[in-house]
Amino acid sequence: MDNWYSSVQLCMTLSNMGLYCRGTVRGNRAHNPRFGMFDKKQVKSVQRGSSLVSVARDQGIIAVSWLDGTVVNLLSTADSTTKSYVKRRVGGNTTQQQCFSLVGLYNMYMQGVDRHDQLRERFLIASGASFKHWYRKLGFALIDIAITNLFVLWSLGDRVNRRDAHMYFQTRLANQMLFETDWMHLATTQAPMEYS
Protein backbone atom coordinates (compact mmCIF):
# COMPACT_ATOMS: atom_id res chain seq x y z
CA MET A 1 0.00 0.00 0.00
CA ASP A 2 1.20 3.49 -0.76
CA ASN A 3 1.95 5.92 2.07
CA TRP A 4 -0.72 8.30 0.76
CA TYR A 5 -3.45 5.90 1.88
CA SER A 6 -2.05 3.70 4.63
CA SER A 7 -2.64 4.33 8.31
CA VAL A 8 -3.08 2.35 11.50
CA GLN A 9 -6.88 2.71 11.29
CA LEU A 10 -6.92 1.33 7.74
CA CYS A 11 -4.78 -1.65 8.78
CA MET A 12 -7.14 -2.37 11.68
CA THR A 13 -10.23 -2.05 9.47
CA LEU A 14 -8.81 -4.37 6.82
CA SER A 15 -7.71 -6.83 9.51
CA ASN A 16 -11.25 -6.89 10.96
CA MET A 17 -12.55 -7.66 7.45
CA GLY A 18 -10.12 -10.59 7.17
CA LEU A 19 -7.72 -8.86 4.74
CA TYR A 20 -3.98 -8.55 5.27
CA CYS A 21 -2.06 -5.45 4.30
CA ARG A 22 1.52 -4.26 4.00
CA GLY A 23 2.62 -0.74 3.13
CA THR A 24 4.63 2.34 3.84
CA VAL A 25 3.20 4.98 6.13
CA ARG A 26 4.02 8.63 6.69
CA GLY A 27 5.71 9.36 9.98
CA ASN A 28 3.29 12.13 10.95
CA ARG A 29 0.07 10.08 10.70
CA ALA A 30 -2.25 9.94 13.66
CA HIS A 31 -2.07 6.82 15.86
CA ASN A 32 1.44 5.88 14.67
CA PRO A 33 3.53 4.31 17.44
CA ARG A 34 5.84 7.23 18.25
CA PHE A 35 8.34 5.16 20.20
CA GLY A 36 8.74 2.72 17.33
CA MET A 37 9.63 5.18 14.58
CA PHE A 38 12.78 7.22 14.04
CA ASP A 39 12.51 10.95 14.53
CA LYS A 40 14.83 13.58 13.04
CA LYS A 41 17.13 13.66 16.06
CA GLN A 42 17.63 9.89 16.09
CA VAL A 43 18.43 9.69 12.38
CA LYS A 44 21.66 11.65 12.83
CA SER A 45 22.96 9.32 15.54
CA VAL A 46 22.20 5.88 14.02
CA GLN A 47 23.83 4.22 11.04
CA ARG A 48 22.31 3.05 7.78
CA GLY A 49 20.46 -0.27 8.09
CA SER A 50 19.27 0.38 11.66
CA SER A 51 15.66 -0.36 12.46
CA LEU A 52 13.02 -0.03 15.15
CA VAL A 53 9.99 -2.27 15.52
CA SER A 54 6.71 -2.00 17.40
CA VAL A 55 4.19 -4.81 17.71
CA ALA A 56 0.54 -4.39 18.70
CA ARG A 57 -0.33 -7.99 19.51
CA ASP A 58 -4.03 -7.35 20.17
CA GLN A 59 -4.52 -5.81 16.72
CA GLY A 60 -1.86 -7.91 14.96
CA ILE A 61 -0.08 -4.88 13.53
CA ILE A 62 3.69 -4.54 13.11
CA ALA A 63 5.27 -1.10 12.66
CA VAL A 64 8.85 -1.00 11.38
CA SER A 65 11.02 2.06 10.94
CA TRP A 66 14.11 1.31 8.83
CA LEU A 67 16.93 3.71 7.96
CA ASP A 68 17.94 3.30 4.32
CA GLY A 69 19.43 6.63 3.32
CA THR A 70 16.15 8.12 4.51
CA VAL A 71 13.68 6.74 7.02
CA VAL A 72 11.21 4.17 5.67
CA ASN A 73 8.18 3.55 7.92
CA LEU A 74 6.12 0.42 7.26
CA LEU A 75 2.94 -1.10 8.69
CA SER A 76 1.87 -4.71 8.22
CA THR A 77 -0.75 -7.17 9.35
CA ALA A 78 0.66 -9.89 7.07
CA ASP A 79 4.22 -10.33 8.37
CA SER A 80 6.22 -11.37 11.39
CA THR A 81 9.32 -9.79 12.91
CA THR A 82 11.79 -12.20 11.29
CA LYS A 83 15.00 -10.80 9.84
CA SER A 84 16.22 -11.08 6.26
CA TYR A 85 18.69 -9.36 3.94
CA VAL A 86 18.30 -6.94 1.05
CA LYS A 87 20.89 -5.84 -1.51
CA ARG A 88 21.76 -2.17 -1.43
CA ARG A 89 24.07 -0.24 -3.73
CA VAL A 90 26.09 2.43 -1.96
CA GLY A 91 28.39 4.26 -4.35
CA GLY A 92 29.68 1.56 -6.68
CA ASN A 93 29.54 -1.29 -4.17
CA THR A 94 26.67 -3.70 -3.61
CA THR A 95 26.24 -4.84 -0.02
CA GLN A 96 23.84 -7.04 1.89
CA GLN A 97 21.98 -5.19 4.62
CA GLN A 98 20.04 -6.81 7.39
CA CYS A 99 16.41 -5.75 7.70
CA PHE A 100 13.04 -7.14 8.69
CA SER A 101 11.44 -9.54 6.21
CA LEU A 102 8.62 -7.02 5.85
CA VAL A 103 10.99 -4.61 4.04
CA GLY A 104 12.18 -7.23 1.56
CA LEU A 105 8.66 -8.44 0.78
CA TYR A 106 7.40 -4.89 0.32
CA ASN A 107 10.24 -4.09 -2.09
CA MET A 108 9.74 -7.33 -4.02
CA TYR A 109 6.06 -6.73 -4.73
CA MET A 110 6.10 -2.94 -5.14
CA GLN A 111 8.67 -2.89 -7.96
CA GLY A 112 6.03 -3.93 -10.49
CA VAL A 113 3.64 -1.27 -9.23
CA ASP A 114 6.32 1.42 -9.47
CA ARG A 115 7.25 0.32 -12.99
CA HIS A 116 3.58 0.41 -14.03
CA ASP A 117 3.31 3.95 -12.62
CA GLN A 118 6.39 5.00 -14.62
CA LEU A 119 4.99 3.59 -17.84
CA ARG A 120 1.55 5.11 -17.27
CA GLU A 121 2.99 8.54 -16.38
CA ARG A 122 4.66 8.91 -19.75
CA PHE A 123 1.47 9.11 -21.83
CA LEU A 124 -1.22 10.14 -19.33
CA ILE A 125 -4.67 11.01 -20.60
CA ALA A 126 -6.26 11.61 -17.18
CA SER A 127 -4.05 14.51 -16.12
CA GLY A 128 -4.33 16.32 -19.45
CA ALA A 129 -7.47 18.23 -18.48
CA SER A 130 -9.50 19.13 -15.44
CA PHE A 131 -13.10 18.04 -15.08
CA LYS A 132 -16.04 19.22 -13.01
CA HIS A 133 -17.05 15.68 -12.16
CA TRP A 134 -14.58 13.28 -10.56
CA TYR A 135 -15.88 10.23 -12.39
CA ARG A 136 -14.69 11.54 -15.76
CA LYS A 137 -11.12 11.74 -14.55
CA LEU A 138 -11.51 8.26 -13.04
CA GLY A 139 -12.73 6.97 -16.41
CA PHE A 140 -9.68 8.38 -18.17
CA ALA A 141 -7.42 6.97 -15.44
CA LEU A 142 -8.90 3.51 -16.04
CA ILE A 143 -8.24 3.93 -19.77
CA ASP A 144 -4.62 4.85 -18.94
CA ILE A 145 -4.28 1.70 -16.85
CA ALA A 146 -5.79 -0.44 -19.62
CA ILE A 147 -3.43 1.02 -22.25
CA THR A 148 -0.42 0.48 -19.99
CA ASN A 149 -1.45 -3.13 -19.35
CA LEU A 150 -1.87 -3.58 -23.10
CA PHE A 151 1.65 -2.24 -23.69
CA VAL A 152 3.11 -4.62 -21.10
CA LEU A 153 1.37 -7.60 -22.74
CA TRP A 154 2.40 -6.43 -26.21
CA SER A 155 6.04 -6.04 -25.19
CA LEU A 156 6.03 -9.54 -23.65
CA GLY A 157 4.61 -11.08 -26.82
CA ASP A 158 6.40 -8.99 -29.45
CA ARG A 159 10.08 -8.58 -28.67
CA VAL A 160 10.54 -5.23 -30.39
CA ASN A 161 14.15 -4.10 -30.62
CA ARG A 162 13.44 -0.42 -30.95
CA ARG A 163 15.02 2.41 -29.08
CA ASP A 164 11.64 3.69 -27.95
CA ALA A 165 9.22 0.77 -28.06
CA HIS A 166 6.69 2.60 -25.86
CA MET A 167 6.41 5.53 -28.28
CA TYR A 168 6.15 3.10 -31.21
CA PHE A 169 3.34 1.25 -29.44
CA GLN A 170 1.42 4.44 -28.61
CA THR A 171 1.61 5.81 -32.16
CA ARG A 172 0.66 2.44 -33.62
CA LEU A 173 -2.32 2.18 -31.25
CA ALA A 174 -3.45 5.72 -32.09
CA ASN A 175 -3.18 5.06 -35.84
CA GLN A 176 -5.18 1.86 -35.53
CA MET A 177 -7.89 3.55 -33.48
CA LEU A 178 -8.16 6.65 -35.67
CA PHE A 179 -7.45 5.52 -39.21
CA GLU A 180 -7.61 1.74 -39.51
CA THR A 181 -10.87 1.03 -37.68
CA ASP A 182 -14.15 1.39 -39.56
CA TRP A 183 -16.30 2.75 -36.73
CA MET A 184 -19.37 3.23 -38.92
CA HIS A 185 -19.27 -0.42 -39.96
CA LEU A 186 -18.96 -1.51 -36.33
CA ALA A 187 -21.91 0.66 -35.30
CA THR A 188 -24.24 -0.79 -37.95
CA THR A 189 -23.24 -4.46 -37.65
CA GLN A 190 -23.50 -4.84 -33.90
CA ALA A 191 -26.77 -6.01 -32.44
CA PRO A 192 -28.53 -3.45 -30.25
CA MET A 193 -28.16 -3.94 -26.53
CA GLU A 194 -31.16 -5.35 -24.74
CA TYR A 195 -31.94 -4.31 -21.21
CA SER A 196 -33.93 -6.55 -18.93
TrEMBL record:
Membrane-spanning segments: 138-157
Keywords, sorted A to Z: Membrane, Transmembrane, Transmembrane helix
Superkingdom field: Eukaryota
Coiled coil: none
InterPro entries xrefs: PGBD
Domain PiggyBac transposable element-derived protein: 1-149
Name of protein: PiggyBac transposable element-derived protein domain-containing protein
